[in-house]
Amino acid sequence: MSHRNAQAFWITAPGRGEHRSEPLGQPGPGELVVRTIYSGISRGTEALVWHGQVPGSETRRMRAPFQAGDFPAPVKYGYVNVGLVEQGPPGWPGTAVFCLYPHQTRYIVPVDGVEPLPADLPAERAVLAANAETALNACWDAMPQAGERISVIGAGVVGMLTAALCSAIPGSEVELVDINPARRETASRLGIDFAHPDEARTANDRIIHASASEDGLRLALEVAANEATIIELSWFGDRAISLPIGEAFHSRRLTLRSSQVGQIPPLMQARWDHRRRLRKALQLLAAHPEWAVLIDGETPFEQLPQAMDAIISGAGLCHRIRYEE
């Protein structure tokens, strides 16, 4: 089977991007040709990459699995790709798959580089897979317990999904906190209580911070109960932040711990690997059609170089990129 050249989105300099043509060639044994149907913008991480704010110390750890080029630029970056297998070993052609691949019309990957979508998961919703996997990992790190008062600060996609998972724990009292009043309606559609920071509940047993803001992390310290645990999901890139860890931080014996999706928490590592975790994230997406409310924007791939800056700087949730045949 012969394929046209692929078109890929590259960041050519901080705040600038373009499409580049890339020859596909022919797949080898154990490889697939995948035609992209949708990709997704991971606003937090991709914003830092777009603006050239990946710290030099983190360039290795920050590499996406199928990234090309190096930070800050030129770089082909991204890890939310849903496509259809066009060519591969028997049984694979026609299979809808998720892959941690950048924004590109077609690509060749090893069979073990993709995960088939569950039969009841539409490709349109599957762009939330990476966020759902991050939220699942966050819950493993946070270890919320039945009956606890849990505050999730930051109602972006990861914060919303983490709050949704926590709210399924029997007896849990979950409150989602954000400065954007428009998030209240979205939270309501997910069955989650919402509060502005000025009215946020105090004395929480567990706090998960996902706002990527200094003010949000300060609020997490303020609303924590004695001996509470605060899980930091945000990544600040090369920004330095200031926190009041004098004051009552020590007397209340608070725990502040980071969570990062690149590593499975130690308590789970004996039984879980990244593939099993991704498969579970896809199963959760299939089981929760209401999570589709988190996809609130879509742009054709052809317009991505012109639209990327507005997408990154916008106040939306998950932004989906649509590919035409």
Plain-language structure description:
The protein has two domains: 6-130 and 272-322, Quinone Oxidoreductase, Chain A, domain 1; 144-258, NAD(P)-binding Rossmann-like Domain (Rossmann fold), CATH 3.40.50.720. The protein has seven helices and 17 strands. The protein has helices at 43-50, 129-142, 157-167, 183-189, 214-222, 274-287, 304-313; strands at 6-13, 16-22, 31-41, 68-69, 75-76, 81-87, 96-99, 106-110, 114-116, 149-153, 173-177, 193-195, 204-209, 224-232, 255-258, 295-300, 318-322. The longest helix has 14 residues, at 129-142.
Under CATH, the homologous superfamily of the largest domain reads Medium-chain alcohol dehydrogenases, catalytic domain
Number of helices: 7
| Structural class label | alpha/beta
Portion in strands: 25-35%
Tell me the number of strands.
17
SSE run: EEEHEEEEEEHEHEHEEHEEHEHE
Q: What is the end-to-end distance?
A: 16 Å
Biggest pleated-sheet summary: 7 strands, mixed
CATH architecture call of the largest domain: Alpha-Beta Complex
